[in-house]
Amino acid sequence: MYTASTALLEALDEAGVSHIFANLGSDHPGIVEALAEAQATGRSVPALVTCPNEMVAMSAAHGFAQASGRAQCVLVHVECGTQSLGGAVHNAAKGRVPVLVVAGSSPFTQEGELRGSRNEFIQWIQDVSDQRGLVRGYMRYDNEIRTGRNIKQMVHRAMQFAYSDPKGPVYLMAAREVLEEEVPRVETDLAVWQPIAPGALPPEGVEELTAALLAAKRPLVVTSYLGRRVAAVEQLTKLCRRLGVMVLESVPNYVNFPHDDALYQGCQWNEPRQNSALAEADLVVVIDSDVPWISAHSRPGAEVPIFHIDVDPLKQAMPLWYIAARRVFRADAATALGQVNARLDTASIDAAAVAARMAVLRERFAQRREALAAREAPGSVLTPEYLTACIRARVDEDCLVLVEGISNYTVMIDHLASTRPGGMFTSGGGSLGWNGGAAIGAKLAHPEKTVFALGGDGCYMFSQPSTVHWMARQYRTPFLQIVYNNRGWKSPKLSALAVHPDGFASRANEIGVTFDPPADYAGIAAAAGGALGLTVKRPEELESALDAGLRAVRQEGRAAVLDVWLPHL
């Protein structure tokens, strides 16, 4: 039979989906049958990756898309599986990562009227009034497939939304009878389902921004996720080097600018202090950033002109958002920066002013690197700075680094000192537990690369490590996971102290955030997936443990977890 399920798999294959991250249920017999038929006949369909937990499935698709640029499919079971996607949906939405979620729904007939009619008690219990509404606030597009006769068009329309800026997850659902429906084969022309072309600056915007950059004495670019596209980093680097423009990363999610360049001013997260680069700037250009600064602590000068460029400058999914921008442009970063660079080709640049500015910045950069190096020195206890420096020494161009550090985000970004666009990324969201599943997805996207997953002990527990490491062994996706273990949730403690620095919580021995003694994190991975599990408590143990972990990943083909004990929170 050629069914709606057959057409669904065919549409996914046409759309370039290579993997279906699936948690199967009673709503999927048609898809299971179509997959089995394809395997028996040799027809091309995406590979099925069994995911015993939906959060891991969504995170794996997320990591795959970040590493490759290609959206994948997550297949979940009715409203229960939809809810179990949990925070991973938030991460994909806030991180602007394209993912197609396909969910079944309870059959809509109960007397055997159609193939797939209700035959299990659970199908009454799992029938809810608005299944799509569970995730609608996070999706770029959602719809219900009501017939298999246009299922291909529905899939390609959803993918068009997922790939069009602002990119993000999309959601389709279909009842069991629909997925079982016998339908005629439909040929689709993918040329008519292309994502919307990137937006550009208007001509007057190019002129105004170029003039402002040429006139500024201390121009500054602030960005968070411009590095999603390598082309944007190339254009930003070209622009900044020819004009001596400083670059500040605020809550960076990617490598937005090479960290070994003197123009780089570091990163800012939640530090309750005024950023010096932001304070001294006489022109600020915000490009691709949801939180360019936290105005309660740090902001540009009151009279400093601000230009804002983003594919979604209104931040339409954020109820409260604004910055005092003089000019706001809805445009793609790579396209906009390319326009400004083209205009600079015919502009008169004050080379002496640029050279003088660069001399100051080189001296400042050298001082910053010296200060960072001093923090990396080994001591009597393991520090996150020393740990990250030892990781950095083992990261090369054939590595991908996934960072989910929370209270150690600044340390990780500073001491990884990444220079290669596309070599490091975070989830882009705020729901913890992304890095384990994402590491599997990244490894599936790039089997030839060594994948590092860095995260705190809280993130490790959120990541469903038993599922993650079972999958890593099952699908041959070994990666090196390093747990920054401070035996608790440090971030909630920091949040409490920031609001009540001298309150009762500041004097309490226990405020409900410690995991001491902790679980055996290395042992969990070893038991679930045969991973190499090592616990590291002393500085002299670290380097040999890292080397052993990399041997396990690269030579033995199995994952490794290093549970590294840092000072207690």
Task: Give me some keywords for this one.
six-stranded parallel beta sheet; 16% strand; Rossmann fold; 569 residues; 18 strands; alpha/beta; 22 helices
Structure report:
With 569 residues, this protein is an alpha/beta fold. The chain has three domains: 4-193, 3-Layer(aba) Sandwich (Rossmann fold), CATH 3.40.50; 203-366, Rossmann fold (3-Layer(aba) Sandwich); 376-565, 3-Layer(aba) Sandwich (Rossmann fold). Helix content is 40%, strand content 16%. It has helices spanning 4-14, 29-41, 54-68, 78-84, 87-94, 122-125, 151-163, 176-180, 203-215, 230-243, 276-280, 333-344, 351-375, 384-392, 409-416, 434-445, 457-462, 465-474, 490-499, 504-507, 521-529, 539-554, and strands at residues 19-22, 47-50, 73-76, 99-105, 141-145, 169-175, 219-223, 246-250, 264-268, 283-287, 306-310, 327-330, 399-404, 424-425, 450-456, 480-485, 532-536, 560-565. A six-stranded parallel beta sheet has the order 2-1-3-4-6-5, sandwiched between helices. The chain has a six-stranded parallel beta sheet with strand order 9-8-7-10-11-12. A six-stranded parallel beta sheet has the order 14-13-15-16-18-17, with helices on both faces. The chain is globular, with a radius of gyration of 25 Å. The model has no long low-confidence stretch (mean pLDDT 96).
The low-confidence runs, each spanning 5 or more residues with pLDDT under 50, are none
Helix/strand class: alpha/beta
Number of domains: 3
What's the count of strands?
18
Q: How many helices does DSSP assign?
A: 22
Radius of gyration: 25 Å
Report the β-strand fraction as a percent range: 15-25%
CATH topology group of the largest domain: Rossmann fold
Going by CATH, the architecture of the largest domain would be 3-Layer(aba) Sandwich
The CATH class of the largest domain turns out to be Alpha Beta
The H-level CATH homologous superfamily of the largest domain, spelled out, is Thiamin diphosphate (ThDP)-binding fold, Pyr/PP domains
